[in-house]
């Protein structure tokens, strides 16, 4: 929420990613940026990897967007990442509208 409070809407996604990274550091939240995450199909690891915007606490996928609104396709995207990986929690955060969407 702090990133949206400071920057509001209107920037590119990469701007929010950089600011989000700085905010995570300042809050002491452990994270990895754009870490490759294994994807499984019927308990077999696929060659294709998913690259999360952020992996927090080594168990939460965080996907950032900068769109006018979140679509069902974006929600399906993160749900599929959760389904295909070993992660159980994901956050989809959209900085592109006047109010922060998650």
Overview of the molecule:
With 102 residues, the protein is α+β, with helices and mostly antiparallel strands. It has a single domain, classed as 3-Layer(aba) Sandwich (Endonuclease, Chain A), CATH 3.40.960. Helix content is 33%, strand content 31%. The chain has three helices and six strands, in the order ααβββββαβ. The strands form two sheets. The protein has a four-stranded mixed beta sheet with strand order 1-4-5-6, with helices on both faces. The radius of gyration is 14 Å and the shape is globular.
Brief digest:
By secondary structure, the protein is of the alpha+beta class.
Topology readout:
Layout: H1 2-7, H2 13-27, E1 31-33, E2 36-41, E3 44-51, E4 54-56, E5 60-65, H3 72-84, E6 89-94
């Amino acid at each position: 929420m702090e990133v949206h409070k400071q920057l509001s809407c209107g920037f590119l996604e990469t701007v929010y990613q950089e600011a989000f990274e700085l905010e995570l550091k300042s809050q002491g939240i452990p994270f990895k940026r754009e870490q490759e995450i294994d994807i499984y199909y019927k308990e077999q690891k696929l060659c294709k990897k998913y690259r999360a915007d952020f992996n927090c606490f080594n168990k939460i996928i965080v996907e950032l967007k900068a769109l006018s609104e979140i679509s069902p396709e974006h929600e399906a995207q993160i749900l599929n990442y959760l389904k295909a990986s070993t992660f159980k929690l994901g956050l989809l955060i959209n900085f592109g509208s006047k109010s922060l969407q998650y």
